[in-house]
Amino acid sequence: MTIADNKKAFHDYFIEDRFEAGIMLEGWEVKAIRDNKVQIKEAYVTIKGDELYLFGAHISALPTASTHIRPDAVRTRKLLLHRHELDKLIGKATRSGYTLVPLNLHYKGGRIKCEIGLAKGKKQHDKRASEKDRDASREVASAMKQHRR
């Protein structure tokens, strides 16, 4: 079940490969995510050393959060992957033109997972072309719907 999608990623990038990663979260963050107080539109994945971190994901604290903690809505969160997946992602992301973007947050077996995409940036003309294709397919679908009536 999807919690939050990053629709902007599909507009700005060609997604070449996808990986599923766990996220190191604090208790108040899990409660806030279960209450849909999360946004990943501005988020991205950074490489520090030989680890990956989710940067810029905004998780709003619930008003019932504990008084002894100081919730930081946009703190950097560590992503959990197998070593061979980390090595593959870091190797490809350090090459020119590739970046790592979070695609969505979802539940899997009661845990919160982040889907990461290995992406290549789109140029402005690529964005226009994909928008044109989407509009054309939408027109074809509506014409087929009209035809069936």
From TrEMBL:
Residues 127-138 have a biased composition (Basic and acidic residues). InterPro entries: SmpB, SsrA-bd_prot, SsrA-bd_prot_CS. Keywords: Cytoplasm, RNA-binding. It is found in: Cytoplasm. GO terms for cellular component: cytosol. GO terms for molecular function: RNA binding. One of its GO terms (biological process) is trans-translation-dependent protein tagging. Residues 121-149 are annotated as: Disordered. Required for rescue of stalled ribosomes mediated by trans-translation. Binds to transfer-messenger RNA (tmRNA), required for stable association of tmRNA with ribosomes. tmRNA and SmpB together mimic tRNA shape, replacing the anticodon stem-loop with SmpB. tmRNA is encoded by the ssrA gene; the 2 termini fold to resemble tRNA(Ala) and it encodes a 'tag peptide', a short internal open reading frame. During trans-translation Ala-aminoacylated tmRNA acts like a tRNA, entering the A-site of stalled ribosomes, displacing the stalled mRNA. PANTHER family: SSRA-BINDING PROTEIN, TMRNA-BINDING COMPONENT OF TRANS-TRANSLATION TAGGING COMPLEX. Belongs to the SmpB family. This is SsrA-binding protein. It comes from Pseudoduganella rivuli. The lineage of its organism: Bacteria, Pseudomonadati, Pseudomonadota, Betaproteobacteria, Burkholderiales.
